Model the fold of this input.
Amino acid sequence: MVSFRVLPKKRQISIFGIRAVGKTTYLVMLINKLSKMMNISNMHILAGLDYYMRMMNWILRGEGPPPTKLAERLLIHVRMKIDGQTVEVRTYDLAGAEIERMGETFRALIDIGNGYIFLIEPSPDPDRKVTQVWLIYRFIEYLTQGFEKVVKKPIAFVFTKNDLYGIKNPEQFFWTYTSPVFNLAQTFYKLKKFAFFAVSAFGGDLETLRMQGKEIQPINIEKPFFWLINNV
Ligand SMILES: Nc1nc2c(ncn2[C@@H]2O[C@H](COP(=O)(O)OP(=O)(O)OP(=O)(O)O)[C@@H](O)[C@H]2O)c(=O)[nH]1
Ligand SMILES: [Mg+2]
Done:
């Protein structure tokens, strides 16, 4: 009899986004959400447990996580069974300031990724808007080796803090939000797999929820994750 050992599907998912876009919050609340899902079992945090707990402490206190420090590069490694199939996911939590430099770390994150989560805060602030369009442009430019190479790795563009912004159609909103700065459609033609989402990690203002004694209820945070896992 031949027996097969089902090898885990190993995935490196890289998360991008400018300062305070909600990267740390997204990661922590995503892990929390996954740990409570019916179709997920045997979920273990192989690296980053202490960090996860520390961040969760800030969140449950109602303050939210502190800004990730420049030198920090925290590996989070989880293993779980999704519908019976073992999946291992590694990711890094990085400071937005480091990503905004678009230097070596930025490129390394792109190089190692099998799939990408690109977080965008739909802030009307012109500085934040321009920086985000710029970062997306540079990201696609590097990923496609100067708009030359076809890229099949999936990219989830995810609007954060949707309890504040209430985006209903993320795809349409992406173009509405970015085109006053530059029409990014000019940079998308080598990308084969991308999708748009809008999520809320808390489902409301953290302090208000805590004061009213209400539970944190993330909205849609698992959607980009499952889309990526199914598309890598
Ligand atoms: N209302 C609301 N606030 C959020 C949400 N997600 C994050 N925040 C807040 O946004 C701020 C920044 O969140 P972080 O997770 O620290 O953002 P970051 O991208 O990790 O920031 P850096 O580490 O500095 O790059 C914090 O005050 C969070 O509490 C959300 O879904 N809704
Ligand atoms: Mg952070």
